[in-house]
Amino acid sequence: MAQIGYARISTGDQNLDLQRDALNHAGCEHTFEDVASGAKAERTGLVQAMAFLRPGDVLTVWRLDRLARSLPHLIEVLNDLEQRGCGFRSLTESIDTTTPAGRLTFHLFGALGQFERDIIRERTLAGLAAAVARGRKGGRKPVMTPEKQQRAQQLIAQGLSVREAATRLKISKTVLYRELQRKRGGNGS
């Protein structure tokens, strides 16, 4: 079983020394590093660390926020580690999934993550229902208004091509073709 370290700072102005020292003191054999925002999904050092891990290895970080950009992302990474037979350790929060208490903590994170997703979904559905009740309709507004439809037909009747008419109306020719086909009953005649 090897301990593999991962350290991250957000900007080049910051310093990795504190994390390096803590990971070395914890016994990490290799440490992968990133200088990247935590919001960035693809981090080269993290990808390399994950690829380096073998079953039985433990990914070790100084603090949880150095690894994951959000609770759902943390759960995703920890699930991936668990499926690959790897452990996880956070030094500052004293989480170690190779112990029963650490596995319990991980499962609590999973439950909290699911709870967070459910709450967000409920709020979204309630907001949509409230908007519908007030007569609001979601989605993009149609590009092709009845006025533009009428003007397009006039321009085409005057001899302009569909492309030229679309350019004058500041819409795409695809939208205009689709609308013209819909007006004709959708059979292309």
TrEMBL record:
The UniProt keywords, alphabetically, are:
DNA integration, DNA invertase, DNA recombination, DNA-binding, Plasmid
Pfam families, per this entry? HTH_7, Resolvase
This protein's record includes keyword Transmembrane: no
Q: Which InterPro entries match?
A: Homeodomain-like_sf (IPR009057), Resolv_N (IPR006119), Resolvase-like_N_sf (IPR036162), Resolvase_HTH_dom (IPR006120), SSR_resolvase (IPR050639)
Query: PROSITE patterns of this UniProt entry?
Result: RECOMBINASES_3
Superkingdom to which the source organism belongs: Bacteria
Entry protein name: Invertase/recombinase-like protein
| Record organism | Acidithiobacillus caldus
Give me the gene this protein comes from. ORF20.8
